[in-house]
Amino acid sequence: MSPLTAHQEPYYLGDNASRPVPFDGVMTVSHYIMPNFATMDWHQVPREKVVENIRSLTDPGGNLNDRIMMYIHVPYCKSFCHYCNFNRYHYPKQDSERLERYTDYLIKEIDWYMRQPYVQAREFTGIYIGGGSPSTLPVTAVERLSAHLRKVVPNFDGIEKSFTGEPRTLRRPGLLDVLKDHGWDRITFGIETLNAKIHRKIGRLDTRDDVDAVFNRMRDLDYKADTCVDMMYDLPGQTLEGFQAELAELLDCYDPAEIDLFTTIYLPYRPLHKLIMDGRVEQPGSPWQLLSMREHLYDTLSAAGYHNTIAETWSKRPERSQYQTAHCARQDIIGVGCAARGNLRDMVSINPEKVDQWQANVDEQGASTETLQSIGPDGVLDRIMVMFPRYKSLDKALLNSYADRVGEAALARVQHVIDGHLAAGVIDEHDDRYTVNKLGVIWHGNLQTDYLRHTLNTKGEVLMNHLTESRADFDNEDRFEVTPETVYIKEHDAEYPRLMK
């Protein structure tokens, strides 16, 4: 049994930092992009099998989890950010009638799922409306959707309800009033950076006035929902000192209940990467600076009383949100809406990316998913292990429960990675569980990659290599250039978006 890590001296901050490098290079990728690089070819499943699996939800049994939540995707945005790779459509091209129609189909798909015995047999824990920017929906549509969810979801008033948006549209007259009236208890939105110059460079068009308006309106309404904000670091032209000042300003001015802090992902030949390659936007700084930023946010938010509930999330509440718990493979997820993803039993669902096809599928079969298929016990174990570094805790009993479900090779592969991480000092072993320590949180992208790598196809492997900064380049502040990886990705550009959501 390894001794628990008790590190007091700085790893990367200051002149006397020890600068440990437990891996050959640092993964600059964030959690949400990683589990989608697996080799499974979603489009090769016969349509008849997908329909059979959809119909299997009339059977209430066969579950891996007793709890279930719902993710609802709204793909519309008022404008596109240069770094974003989520499924989204340009809001100005959508009239109110089309957005109301989208809401009609959300309600139709929700109703289909809520009629299924499998869903009815589970304990409902939460609803998360994400995007895109759901706050671009007309206020009347948000009212209708909220009222309908209240009618059909068990214990609606008692479960966790998260609504996401962006400041320009969240501040619209009446929207926060509706959300308060229907008991949405987590309002989450992106700020990303408080540096106005960097803010513009990454394509953000909201302003500090918009952010202030959201906080002020919630205060005026006496709206007690948790405010959950997104921030980014390793941004173009951002210095360590600048990031430190931004984080201090965020805490001083807004004091949010929860903060998600994401490393900027520079996906090849997407707008932000192209702007840097063309010399129109500065480089983000060296990998050493990236590691220093991660340590600074860990130390600063810990000292401010925040809890590191999952790897990139800091909350004033010690417990994880239901959405975080489900996303880390501890609950089932119903995926509703264009491009939504879900997990039911050992089956993964991915809904159509195009709104018209999503609506056609809802009309035809109730559930829109194109891909509902089993990943089997080995796939479920992979999902649990890939999410372990994000969830930060792994019960040995949960791991041992797969001994009779998967082959010896799968368990041996998992144990080999665990042993390597123990030796590297990024996780700790306890009597009943493994936990990720501070160094592991700083390097958590690497931990996830180690559990994922055996599933990668060529496209995933190439992208992983692109997103890894090698140890030899840690002092390099010019991180972007044409490489064999960027050439390959450009040649296969149309095939990457499905991998990278």
Automatic annotation (TrEMBL):
<dbReference type="GO" id="GO:0051539">
    <property type="term" value="F:4 iron, 4 sulfur cluster binding"/>
</dbReference>
<protein>
    <recommendedName>
        <fullName>Heme chaperone HemW</fullName>
    </recommendedName>
</protein>
<keyword id="KW-0408">Iron</keyword>
<keyword id="KW-0411">Iron-sulfur</keyword>
<keyword id="KW-0479">Metal-binding</keyword>
<dbReference type="GO" id="GO:0006779">
    <property type="term" value="P:porphyrin-containing compound biosynthetic process"/>
</dbReference>
<dbReference type="InterPro" id="IPR034505">
    <property type="entry name" value="Coproporphyrinogen-III_oxidase"/>
</dbReference>
<dbReference type="Pfam" id="PF04055">
    <property type="entry name" value="Radical_SAM"/>
</dbReference>
<dbReference type="GO" id="GO:0003824">
    <property type="term" value="F:catalytic activity"/>
</dbReference>
<keyword id="KW-0949">S-adenosyl-L-methionine</keyword>
<dbReference type="InterPro" id="IPR058240">
    <property type="entry name" value="rSAM_sf"/>
</dbReference>
<dbReference type="InterPro" id="IPR006638">
    <property type="entry name" value="Elp3/MiaA/NifB-like_rSAM"/>
</dbReference>
<feature type="domain" description="Radical SAM core">
    <location>
        <begin position="62"/>
        <end position="304"/>
    </location>
</feature>
<dbReference type="GO" id="GO:0046872">
    <property type="term" value="F:metal ion binding"/>
</dbReference>
<dbReference type="GO" id="GO:0005737">
    <property type="term" value="C:cytoplasm"/>
</dbReference>
<dbReference type="InterPro" id="IPR007197">
    <property type="entry name" value="rSAM"/>
</dbReference>
<dbReference type="InterPro" id="IPR013785">
    <property type="entry name" value="Aldolase_TIM"/>
</dbReference>
